[in-house]
Design goal:
The chain is an all-beta fold. It is 0% helix and 49% strand. A hairpin with a 5-residue loop joins strand 24 and strand 25.
Length: 368
């Protein structure tokens, strides 16, 4: 949710640079615009529209959308489907609360509101940022920006079971297959003498499932905000400082948090999210959405081969890409916040632009 400047970190001689600059981004193959649908698509996308405060279901095959009759609250920052259920959950940063919806039998229909849980853990402005479910779905973990903690809560009641202080300004959180919990610590420091916002070096913290303590922690790039797990590796998206220090992608051992490869630098860009798409050959692709420091406001999707650890393509766009998710039948969908669109990118590189509501932020995908 935040666009914050941080102090410069010199990466010379330390990281693998992405050669393609924003100004030279390539296209992503043929594209289509408007809600004509994605041919042969078999997935449905749920979209939280921040400005309209609505929850939308979009049938990707037709582009047709249906809007929930119950409005959202402010700051819909994260959205997930609870494992083993037909529930869609939406985290609201500014309210702060978690809103629960039932996914209908016809998944192309708008989800139906169930109830909401307050996330105001300490009776103040907790600013919850992101969340993830336990592997069974019976509990969930949520980070609190203002209080520097991660909290364990019951999915059935929303009751707070345990809070653990992990470090300044945590955002991303993910649950590993063994139940351990990884948290991204942005290390926001406040403002300097010139009024600029600044960060210390970011960290990743590994906790046990009960949040009884920290197992291990290690330093990564500046402003780590998103954590993804795939094939016994943690991928950390660091946004950089939106100025002098560019964004980076890190690969860590999920047990020791040691780096297993040199970080990839995304020159000229500041990534805010990543989805992982695995093709039929078993190759894993990281699709990162990022804004840029280009004076004309250019933005991009960066495609990284996670198997060979090589950046392969940058696709320029406009519209402020905010969140990206993997589609169950392959490809990704990206919410473009200011152009009110969804960019669907298939594995063959074909792209489609579908109309969303006003200010799409959090998104989730499900197979029909």
């Amino acid at each position: 949710m935040r666009t914050l400047a941080i102090k410069k970190w010199n990466w010379i001689g330390f990281a693998l640079a992405l050669v393609v600059l924003i100004s030279g981004c390539s296209g992503g193959g043929p594209s289509s615009s408007g809600n004509i649908g994605v041919p042969n698509a078999q997935d449905v996308l749920y979209v939280a529209n921040e400005n309209a405060q609505t929850l939308m279901a979009i049938d990707l095959s037709s582009g047709f959308d249906r809007v929930s009759g119950t409005g959202l609250s402010s700051g819909a920052n994260d959205m997930k489907i609870r494992p083993g259920s037909n529930e869609l959950w939406v985290l609201h940063t500014f309210t702060p609360e978690m809103r629960r919806y039932t996914i209908q039998t016809d998944k192309t229909q708008a989800p139906v509101f169930i109830n909401s849980y307050s996330l105001d853990i300490f009776q103040g402005s907790t600013s919850p940022e992101m969340f993830d479910f336990s592997n069974s779905g019976t509990d969930f973990y949520v980070t609190s920006w203002n209080y520097g903690c991660v909290s364990l809560r019951e999915s059935a009641t929303g009751n707070d079971r345990q809070d653990l202080q992990v470090g300044p300004r945590p955002e991303g959180v993910t649950v590993l297959p063994n139940g351990n919990v990884a948290v991204a610590i942005t290390s926001y420091n406040g403002t300097d003498g010139l009024g600029n916002l600044s960060y210390g070096f970011g960290e990743v913290v590994l906790c046990d499932s009960a949040l009884s303590g920290v197992i291990v922690r290690d330093t990564v790039g500046i402003n780590p905000r998103v954590i993804r797990y795939y094939n016994n590796a943690l991928y950390i998206v660091c946004s950089g400082d939106f100025g002098n220090t560019h964004g980076t992608l890190w690969k860590l051992d999920p047990t020791t948090l040691t780096s297993t490869a040199l970080p990839i630098v995304l020159n000229g860009a500041y990534p805010g999210d990543m989805a992982i798409d695995v093709d039929s050959t078993g190759t894993a692709w990281g699709v990162l959405c990022a804004v840029s420091n280009d004076p004309n406001g250019a933005q991009a999707l960066f495609i990284v081969n996670l198997t060979s650890w090589q950046p392969t393509q940058a696709i320029s766009m406009t519209g402020n890409p905010f969140r990206v998710v993997t589609l169950p039948h392959g490809g990704t969908a990206t919410a473009l916040k200011t152009s009110n669109e969804i960019l669907v990118r298939l594995r063959d590189g074909t792209t489609y632009y579908l109309q969303a509501g006003d200010g799409p932020l959090a998104i989730a995908a499900i197979a029909k």
